[in-house]
Structure formats: C-alpha cells, structure tokens
Sequence to fold (252 residues):
Amino acid sequence: MTKKLLKFITVALFWLAVWHILSLIAGKEVLLPSPIVTFKTLFSLMGTGSFWVFCGASVLRIIIGLASGIAAGVILAVLSCKSSLFQSLVSPLLSVIRATPVASFIILALVWIGKGNVPSFTAFLMVLPVVWSAVSVGIESIDRGLSEMVSVFRFSFVKKLFHLYIPSVLPSFFAGVGTGMGLAWKAGIAAEVICNPRYGIGSALYDSKVYLNTAELFAWTAAVVIISMSLEALLKHFSKKFTRGGGLKNEG
Fold:
C-alpha cells in the first residue's frame, strides 16, 4: 500500500512539474495558469455554497443517467441471451448508439426534452450499450458444467441466481460499469456545457470560457477529474468487495 501511494505521489508530482514548466513557457495565465494558481482558485471556489450546489447537481444528473443505463443494459442483456431474435433486433440499435457522436445526441435531446434532463439522457445512452455488451459476455461465459450441475441438483431459481448467475456475471458487469461511468461522466459534463442548465459544472465551465477566466476553467476541470476519480475508486472498492469469493466453482 505504501509503495502504491509513493508511486502515485511521484507520478502526480512529475506531471504537476511538467504543467508548471509549460505554464512558465506560456508566460500568461490566460493561456495556461500554473498548478498553484489553479488549486488556489479551486480552494477558493470550494469555500462558496454555489460550488457544492453545482457539483451536487452534476453528480445527481449523471448518477440518474448511469443508474438508468445500467438497469436498461442488464435487462436488454438478459433478454438478448434468452432470445436470438430479440438480440438481432436490438444489436443494430445499440451499434448505432455507439457510433453516433455524443454532440449529435446532445443537440437532438435539446429538441426532444428539457435542457435540464439532457445530461442524464446523454449519460444513459453512453452507458446502455457498454453494460449490455459486458453483461451479455458475462452471461455467455457462464460455465456449462456448473449450469448442468445446478439443474441436476434441482436448485431453485433464487439459488441459481445467487450461487451461479450473479457471481459469474459480476466481474464483467463491474468492468462494464467502470467503462460506462467514465463515458457517462464526460458525456454528461459535455451536455451541460452545450445545454447550459442553471446549475451544473458544465455551466460553470461555459461561463469561465465566456469570461476568459482560464484559472476558473482549470479549477472546475480539476474538480471534474477529482470527482470522477473518487467515484471510480468507490466503484473499484465495491467491485473487489462483491466479487471476492462467492459462487460455485468447477473443480474440473
């Protein structure tokens, strides 16, 4: 743990030094503020109530989209693995969602729904195909020998679910959620920048750009990165907790 922490600090200090050198070369804060100026601005923003309101609003919107995308992705994956016809019908739609630029969805969503709901909708669309694909792979990789064994021993559906299906699919599920969370966070903030709701980190980023307040722009970006990394660390913690042991094992 100490080695990992030391390595993290070393890498962080290296890139902060690179950032500082580049800011010195730029010579103007409006072009590239130094790390010291950026984090001073961030701590100053953290002392205001609006900072926490904006961060809370963004996190709430993105979590709503993320949770909806996860739920829909799991349901579609289960139905796809149960029915080849359903999979044939759904696969092209999810491929289109994957291939379409995020900006196109954001602009279309502004036409269809209120701007306050666009970030959640965008996050939902980014997460859906990723979770669907990950859970589908997890279901298809369930050991056939174990599946036959639980049938022979006449396990109830609940026992099959908690001792075979869920433990087998969880690693793929958490991998998909991890990827989807990163996409949802970036797409959700981008949607806020474009649709500019009353409260949100994206709106603050847009205002910083309009008023050429580069220090604030970098400070809000740092806030996005910190929140995103914190959520990712939280997900990894739960992933390790829930995937450690459990489930049936084929001893060959």
Residues 151 and 160 are 9 Å apart (CA to CA).
